[in-house]
Design goal:
Elements (H helix, E strand, L loop, with lengths): L1 H22 L5 H7 L2 H7 L12 H27 L2 H4 L6 H12 L6 H17 L10 H8 L1 H25 L3 H22 L5 H4 L3 H22 L4 H8 L2 H13 L8 H16 L1
Length: about 280
């Protein structure tokens, strides 16, 4: 069952990136980051009255830490998509499972078995090849390009810090439940984002109105991603869930090509195939 939710997650996240790109043409990336959590807040918050809240030190650390990290990640994520093609920056997130090989054993004591580990590595390699395109001077160019270009540099930082927040999510869920964590973390993220965006004077209807349709789809797909991600996390290892989540890069490549006419779809076929093999190894695990 966890596999279904873990696969729905990248579909939702990849679809979100398409509407983030569309919205970024007419509105500041900070506004997109704020609106990102509007629908989750509306849908999830009433549920707090139906729960028997479990509050302890681990829950407070998990919720607060995840929320702060995800505020930073949301801002950088939106800016990355604003600066570059989604088919180029989204696959960079596949480096997150690589960092989880370090953070998960340290933070939650989870170590994937050898088959699952191989699947994670294949996903990372596939993502790397997806980032290879025309004009690359050497095999190391996609790596040096991570720090040379704004879009990929921002998304690389997101990949690093998400490897930390995923474990904080797990800590909170293990000490409460998935529904409580979804509600509380969304409330904290929304409050923090409101402070950041409000202090910049960007919370004006005339700023939001031109892109309200695209922003609504961004927030709707965020809702789906959040639910699928947290439910899957409650059922299996963090590394496996996040590894499958990184298939959002493949979804973004396809959406970017067919809806935004982004280039190099053929060159990225090999990367897509390797990522698919990575998924198969994770299934075998």
């Amino acid at each position: 069952m966890w596999l279904i939710f873990a696969l729905l997650n990248p579909i939702s996240e990849g679809s979100r990136s398409l509407f983030v790109k569309k919205a970024s043409r007419g509105v500041n990336s900070l506004v997109i980051s704020w609106f990102n959590n509007v629908i989750p807040l509306i849908l999830f918050t009433p549920g707090i009255f139906l729960l028997d809240l479990q509050i302890n030190t681990n829950v407070i650390i998990g919720v607060t830490g995840s929320a702060v990290i995800n505020v930073v990640a949301a801002i950088l994520y939106m800016r990355a998509i604003q600066h570059d093609n989604i088919s180029k920056v989204m696959p960079i997130l596949s480096f997150t499972p690589l960092f989880l090989l370090v953070t998960s054993p340290l933070m939650v004591g989870e170590v994937p078995n050898k088959t699952g580990l191989l699947g994670i590595i294949l996903l990372v390699i596939g993502s790397y090849i997806l980032n290879l395109g025309r004009g690359k001077r050497s095999f190391l160019d996609p790596i040096t390009g991570l720090f040379r270009e704004k879009g990929t540099r921002y998304m690389f930082i997101v990949a690093v810090i998400w490897s930390i927040s995923a474990n904080l999510d797990k800590i909170s869920i293990n000490n409460s439940n998935v529904y409580q964590h979804i509600i509380l973390v969304n409330v904290v993220i929304f409050v923090l984002m409101t402070i950041v965006v409000g202090s910049r004077g960007l919370l004006r209807w005339q700023t939001i109105r031109p892109e309200i349709n695209n922003l609504s789809f961004v927030s709707l797909f965020t809702t789906g991603s959040f639910v699928f991600h947290m439910i899957a996390l409650s059922m299996t290892l963090v590394a496996y869930v996040v590894a499958l989540k990184r298939l959002s890069g493949l979804v973004a490549v396809l959406l970017g090509h067919f809806f935004l006419k982004e280039p190099n779809i053929r060159e990225r076929f090999l990367g897509a195939l390797i990522m698919f093999l990575g998924v198969l190894f994770i299934l075998l695990a």
